[in-house]
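Example 3.2
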Amino acid sequence: MPNRRDPTAPARTGARTIHALPAGLEALPWELPRVFLGLDGVPATPEGAATWILPVPYEATTSWGAGTRRGPRAVIDASRYIELHDHELDRDPSSQGVYTFPALELARGDAERAMGELEDAFTQVLGAAADRRVIMLGGEHSVSAPAILAHARRLPERLSVLQLDAHLDLRSSLDGSPYSHACAMGRVIDRVDLVTVGARGISGEEWEIAEQRDNVTVITGEEVGRGGDWAERAVGALRDPVYITFDVDFFDPALMPSTGTPEPGGGDWKAAMALLKRVFAERTVVGADVVEHAPIPGLHAPDFVVAKLVYRMIGYWSGARARP
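Structure, written as tokens:
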């Protein structure tokens, strides 16, 4: 059974996150709302939630396996089965509330227009969010660039970006488009400092860019696999404030096969959580996204892995220091 806040309570009533119920039908035993964690009532309203989830199921430039447009919905559906008590944190992060937006539908067939729409929408969401935490669910990695730029334009300080990814995504263009998923970091690199962890599928062009730039730090997948002080180096290269973009192909395909461009030799759950825990504790995180999940029909474990990743990020973030 999916989550219910109180198994002895009557049918769920009160505020619905997306769909209102006709008058007089509120007391029927409706299923959990199809929103992150299945929350309803005040904790799932924009006003009552400390975290906002923004689904952006955009997919236009995938270069091999497709399906990232289905990622946000699969993650949201799987999240309804997560145990709300986090034993590592010894608390229930959902008690601070999580609101889930309807999915943003961006322009089709015009990547430049779509990215402009997303940057404008994200800027407006951030303006409305005030001190709330906003996590975007992609979609392909191209959606991260507008979100990062929206943050960078609002901040007086230079933004640091922590990218967990099998690829650098520093190309100037791919297949004739500068708005490809493979160009996401290339579109923001003049505005931010970039720390990439887990890269192991790197083009010669990207490697040259990374070596020539003093605002780019690369920790390869091989370094992560060897252990040592790679996490210390990653955290040390980040200056406040920090935006986190997590491409799920950071993980080894044995854990995360449901992504368009899997690369062998990826990171594991323990390494990812250890790094995220440190970053949320030691740096001021202002935004985050999780992208590139392409669900495989009939294989639900990866959906749950990504949902758990998002919930763990909410947990670490909710216990982190406030922005001064």
